[in-house]
UniProtKB/TrEMBL annotation, chain B:
The chain crosses the membrane at residues 12-34. It comes from Shinella fusca. PANTHER family: CYTOCHROME C7-LIKE DOMAIN-CONTAINING PROTEIN, LIPOPROTEIN CYTOCHROME C. CDD domains: Cytochrom_C3 (cd08168). The keyword Transmembrane helix applies. This is Ferredoxin. Keywords: Membrane, Transmembrane, Transmembrane helix. The lineage of its organism: Bacteria, Pseudomonadati, Pseudomonadota, Alphaproteobacteria, Hyphomicrobiales.
Length: 282, 222
């Protein structure tokens, strides 16, 4: 969207209620709308179109439920899911029970990821300056851009993505950066573990992921870290944590998670030790 | 103190009240008549379709089974409409150049689906599973009418709740052998009540159909 139009829209919104409409007129209009909405129940059914497939998928039964094994992204990490579809429409995501990481479980964010498919703001076409355009236009634009960037070694190109972990896409971006070395790649990850990345770079010299093996630990000490809290690894973490606790309850192994914390977080009861005084000690 | 109402006020009040009652009754009669009219239920009304498909020709004259095109009728919640590809299994061989079929060829070439107007459909607040009705032996003709006599498709039954309940309250007389559900003409079945009288009663027992459960609200309104 251009700056002019953005400002115009903002000014309109800031002006508030349009002139000449008082409270009484507004209520009248609302009452009329309500009364008319009731009438719509009396009319005959509106015409409805049926659009059958051009080439039907094998074994397709209209209205029957089909499951697909797929993945949903959470902060760039693929969460193994089974998607439930009816007539080609996805309606529910469940954890993939055959996947070793989750074992059939999902978290609330992955469940809610389905709603993204039905987001009215989801773009249906490429946009240029806020206006939807045809793919062919984008292809021509990209071709022209590639020629120019080849000459200038990618100067002025900025790529903005969300967090990514797909090896294919990372390899493609790496290839692009080799071709256009002066291009810049920005990752927008406002809720991501930026501090952890910084810390791991300091500790190990490169950015590494955390894959805590709670099931192999005997003592877990967490300093103000909500390790069972929301995040792309919350499902496997919770699973391994529960497994270790089950083992302890069955009398196998010593398992004593302890945590020093300042803010309240999910805390299973039993076998927990909390530092006295909370924040003061930790 | 002067009189507030004139001598005729009482008469005028009575006349107005009578008129009001008459208007109310008339309105109810008109609304009721409209709701049951074919204008509202669409019984016998032909929709404008992209191709003037004739069930009379394909079913009545050629004898193609319903399930050749409506393949999911026995397995799916919806019977479904045939894909363009299904039409072209025959029409790539016969009537290949017919102008009438130009939209079908265009659909296959462009990959865009044909846009049919739905004829037999229920409101969104009705849960309906096509397959269970067929597997218990409700023949096609019961709801869709004699499609083998319809040059253009139209609704044969009003699809009102009353009509659904008529069968759900007493399903036995409507049941037929599931192997023959696509049969259009059941006159010889109806003419021989002696032989077939007990069929429906027996099959409701075999299938465990309980009419008392079939009329519960949440059977159709979930």
């Amino acid at each position: 969207m251009t700056a002019d139009r953005q400002r115009e829209r903002w000014e309109r919104a800031a002006a508030g209620r349009p002139e000449g409409v008082d409270r009484r007129t507004l209520l009248k209009a609302m009452a009329a709308s309500l009364a008319l909405a009731g009438l719509s129940g009396c009319g005959a059914q509106a015409d409805e179109k049926a659009l059958p497939y051009v080439r039907e998928p094998e074994g397709f039964a209209d209205g029957a439920v089909r499951w697909y094994a797929t993945a949903a992204l959470f902060e760039g990490y693929a969460q193994p899911v089974l998607g439930k579809t009816v007539s080609g429409r996805p309606i529910k995501l469940e954890g993939n029970p055959d996947h070793p990481v989750c074992g059939g479980a999902t978290d609330a964010f992955t469940q809610a990821a389905l709603l993204g498919l039905y987001d009215p703001a989801r773009s249906q076409a490429p946009r240029r300056e806020g206006r939807p355009v045809a793919w062919s236009l984008f292809e021509r634009f990209a071709d022209d851009l590639a020629v120019r960037l080849d000459q200038e070694k990618g100067r002025g190109l900025r790529l903005l993505t969300g967090p990514l972990s797909s090896p294919t896409m990372l390899a493609q971006i790496a290839a692009m950066m080799r071709r256009w070395p002066q291009a810049r790649w920005h990752v927008s990850d406002p809720a991501g573990p930026a501090e952890w990345r910084r810390a791991s770079r300091q500790l190990f010299g490169r950015v590494l992921d955390r894959q805590p093996a709670f099931d192999a630990a005997e003592v877990v000490v967490s300093f103000d870290g909500d390790f069972l809290g929301p995040g792309p690894r919350q499902t496997p973490n919770a699973r391994k944590f529960a497994e270790a606790r089950r083992r302890r309850q069955a009398g196998k192994g010593f398992w004593r998670p302890s945590r020093c914390r300042r803010r309240p977080a999910l805390r299973p009861t039993g076998g927990w030790w909390q530092a006295p005084g909370g924040s003061a000690v930790c | 103190m002067a009189q507030i109402f004139t001598a005729s006020a009482d008469t005028r009040l009575r006349a107005a009240a009578l008129l009001g009652v008459v208007a109310l009754v008339m309105a109810l009669v008109v609304l009721g008549g409209y709701a049951d009219s074919s204008y509202a239920t669409l019984v016998g009304w032909v929709e404008h379709q992209p191709v003037p498909f004739s069930h009379q020709h394909h079913v009545g004259e050629l004898g193609i089974d319903c399930r050749y095109c409506h393949a999911a009728a026995e397995t799916g919640a919806h019977a479904g409409l045939p894909s363009t590809f299904t039409c072209m299994t025959c029409h790539s061989q016969v009537w290949t150049g017919a102008p009438m079929l130009a939209p079908v060829r265009a659909s296959l070439a462009s990959g865009k689906p044909l846009e049919w107007q739905r004829v037999a459909r229920l409101p969104d607040y009705v849960y309906f599973d096509h397959s269970i009705h067929l597997s218990r032996g409700v023949p096609c003709v019961t709801c869709h009418g004699r499609v083998d006599r319809m040059p253009l498709m139209s609704r044969a039954q009003p699809f009102q709740m009353q009509w659904c309940l008529d069968c759900h309250r007493n399903p036995a007389p409507h049941l037929r052998p599931p192997a023959e559900i696509t049969r259009m003409d059941w006159s010889n079945w109806d003419e021989e009540p002696g032989i077939h009288a007990v069929y429906g009663e027996l099959m409701t027992k075999v299938y465990g159909i309980e009419p008392a459960k079939l009329t519960q609200c949440n059977i159709c309104h979930r």
